[in-house]
């Protein structure tokens, strides 16, 4: 099986290798033949630097993560995909619980089991609508052929959701949840741009449509699930 090529983080051109290692700890970064820049400077960067550049939405940081770190040669894509789906749903469930805890109009007398069922229905229905609308919008507006890799990129670029864990510690207002949602949207758009090489405006439009439909379904599914359970008069 042929060795999978890496990607230059500066221009997106395929390169044979990112570095040549002479001995442990002694290596030389390779340059891209297309742009003549160092193919991937993040190879020798600390994780904190990469994380900061991801937060700043630098496309080269996304290329490093999506093409040179998470690729078929270094990880099992199928297993990673299932793990990320589970993590994504858990973070989304946590987000829904945070909104409930900070909503003065929530039904505090509802049992934990019924509340958990409602949150589960909301999360699953909203994310099903998100995936479906994202796929349809991307098919109409973008040229893409690697559906599994695109889904993987969207899940990885939703890392911003981990900031929700800081809310109970620092007692942030509920508006921070929606700020995180906007950062997830823009991060998804950058990942989509990197993976499809499409215009930024089109990628933003696809992500905006998908996230908007997800938000609407999330708002609708909550009251509907309560009505079915007989808790809304």
Automatic annotation (TrEMBL):
Per the entry, what this protein does is: Mediator of sterol homeostasis involved in sterol uptake, trafficking and distribution into membranes. Regulates also the sphingolipid metabolism.
Subcellular compartments? Endoplasmic reticulum membrane
Which keywords label this protein? Endoplasmic reticulum, Lipid metabolism, Lipid transport, Membrane, Sphingolipid metabolism, Transmembrane, Transmembrane helix, Transport
Q: Which GO terms describe its biological process?
A: intracellular sterol transport; regulation of plasma membrane sterol distribution; sphingolipid metabolic process; sterol metabolic process
What is the membrane topology here? Multi-pass membrane protein
Bilayer-crossing regions? 80-99, 119-138, 150-170, 176-195
What the record says about family reads:
Belongs to the ARV1 family.
Q: What is this protein called?
A: Protein ARV
Q: Which GO cellular component term is one of those annotated?
A: endoplasmic reticulum membrane
